[in-house]
Design a protein that fits this description.
The complex is a heterodimer.
Chain A (H helix, E strand, L loop, with lengths): L2 H24 L10 H12 L5 H9 L1 H21 L6 E3 L9 H23 L8 H18 L2 H7 L2 H24 L23 H29 E3 L5
Antiparallel strand pairs in A: 1-2
Helix pairs in contact in A: 2-3, 3-4, 4-8, 4-9, 5-6, 6-7, 6-9, 8-9
Chain B lengths: L1 H21 L3 H21 L3 H37 L12
Helix pairs in contact in B: 1-2, 2-3
The chains are: A mainly alpha, B mainly alpha.
């Protein structure tokens, strides 16, 4: 295929996509309108199940099966990264030298760490009440540990972060979601149905299975992010050699 | 007031995204990407989607830039080793930063 022909095919594809997008956008309802048929039904359903945060009600109750898929995407992606970034033949590890950190950065990092950790756990625990949940809070919890790398050094991070334990946490979080779904079957309802008592609206124990599924996702996401970053850090800081190809 | 915030955050997102594309150094791109993530988080929040804004803040402005920076560091290290092995000691490499 000549360069000209390839450019022609590309131009045709781009023009067709642009035309389809423009046609689709013209059919969209106006921005900020008052009619939200799906939104109204979702809010009604989430209020019926005593879940104050409608987004969580959609993600973990009305569409809980979709979330299982999303959680599995992250799980498999991290698994793939672990396999790809493993130490291969011809590579060896060298412990990185301790780094010196400016005292102000160290103070700020060490002060921010517990606050960040607590914020992450709060976001996971309050997914059914306020914006956030397992995904968001899990990422916050995982980044909190890495403040140690920024504020102290890599060895300090390694000490509080046994990767094997977090790999188990990753798998346990994923398994917990699947098993909580099976709990619906045991109760005689559908897979991932919200079978627990809905509790009092606006309290931590409201929303039935929503807080439990959030906790499972929080465990999975925080462990997955820790494992993911651990392999990136190990490649960037510890593993030497392997530049040559056999 | 809402319209002003939405317009301002969208303009910031457009500017940051353009800057990320035109920046050729991946390490600097990661920093710009982090700013873009912050802008998107603000945009989502003023558009009344705080859940998405929170994800964007965690993933887009903290996690992804960190992974890019670590990858850049690894690639540079491998390149330095290859250069050092190819043209003899003392040529490539230079001071190693930890």
């Amino acid at each position: 295929m000549s360069r000209r022909l390839r450019l022609g095919v590309l131009a045709a594809g781009l023009l067709a996509t642009a035309a389809l997008l423009a046609a689709a956008f013209l059919e969209l309802p106006a921005f900020g309108g008052a009619r939200h048929p799906y939104g109204d039904r979702a809010v009604e359903a989430s209020l019926a199940r005593h879940t104050a945060n409608t987004v969580s009600a959609v993600n973990f109750d009305q569409r809980a099966f979709d979330t299982l898929g999303e959680e599995t995407i992250l799980f498999s992606a991290v698994l793939g990264t672990v396999v790809l970034l493993r130490q291969t033949r011809g590579e060896h590890r060298e412990a990185p030298e301790p780094a010196s950190v400016p005292p102000a950065l160290r103070r700020y990092g060490l002060a921010a760490l517990p606050v960040t950790l607590l914020t992450g756990l709060y976001v996971i625990a309050h997914g059914q009440l306020s914006p956030g949940g397992g995904f968001q809070g899990g990422v916050v919890v995982a980044t909190a540990f890495h403040l140690l790398y920024v504020a102290v050094d890599y060895r300090a991070l390694e000490r509080v972060r046994p990767v094997g334990l977090y790999e188990i946490g990753d798998a346990a979080g994923e398994a917990a979601y699947v098993l909580l779904g099976a709990g619906g079957l045991l109760a005689g309802a559908a897979y991932l149905a919200n079978v627990l008592p809905y509790g009092t609206f606006g309290t931590l124990a409201s929303g039935g299975t929503v807080p439990l599924l959030n906790a499972a996702v929080g465990l999975e996401v925080s462990s997955a992010v820790v494992v993911l970053l651990a392999h990136f850090l190990r490649q960037a800081l510890e593993i030497e050699g392997g530049g040559e190809r056999e | 007031m809402d319209d002003v915030l939405v317009t301002a955050s969208l303009l910031f997102v457009a500017a940051a995204a353009t800057a990320a594309v035109f920046n050729r150094d991946p390490a600097r791109q990661a920093v710009v990407l982090s700013l873009l993530g912050l802008g998107l988080a603000v945009a989502f929040t003023v558009l009344q989607a705080p859940d998405v804004g929170l994800s964007q803040l965690g993933v887009g402005s903290a996690l992804t830039p960190l992974m890019i920076l670590l990858t850049v560091r690894k690639v540079r290290k491998v390149r330095r080793t290859e250069k050092g092995a190819g043209s003899g000691p003392g040529s490539g490499g230079g001071k190693r930063r930890r």
